[in-house]
Amino acid sequence: xxxxxxxxxxxxxxxxxxxxxxxxxxxxxxxxxxxxxxxxxxxxxxxxxxxxxxxxxxxxxxxxxxxxxxxxxxxxxxxxxxxxxxxxxxxxxxxxxxxxxxxxxxxxxxxxxxxxxxxxxxxxxxxxxxxxxxxxxxxxxxxxxxxxxxxxxxxxxxxxxx
Length: 162
Description:
With 162 residues, the chain is mostly beta strands. It has one helix at residues 2-25, and strands at 32-41, 45-49, 52-55, 57-63, 71-79, 85-88, 94-96, 101-106, 118-130, 133-139, 148-152, 154-160. The strands form 3 sheets. Strands 1, 5, 6, 7, 9 and 12 form a 6-stranded antiparallel β-sheet that branches. It has a 4-stranded antiparallel β-sheet with strand order 8-4-10-11, with no helix packed on it. The termini are far apart. This is DUF3124 domain-containing protein.
């Protein structure tokens, strides 16, 4: 009898666990908007010891994930760890067709951003569009094993569709 109750308890617990991911994944990520400002952390160096850091190249990648709507990158700015604007990375706005991507490189020898550098990008669309994926890819570029990682952008302002 105890064995049967234990089995039933394990089965019931398993069913609860298998239901949790379904509920978490049921969120709707298809909201369309007219534009956003996205903050993307970037790093031109990381510390591996108290007095030693590894230099990194940072590539910003912006992916238009909307399969039907063109978006326009209005601005892509690069800021240092103090928040100071270092440079505007687009001379003119850039259109991204559906599923098109754009990358911008901060080379490994450019340490002006410091440990807490960031990209700030502004995009818009004439008609409501899905939010693009914006992420920075940092690599050591040393040819050997070294730090490589990504950071995903965060929406900090949004222009809602009416």
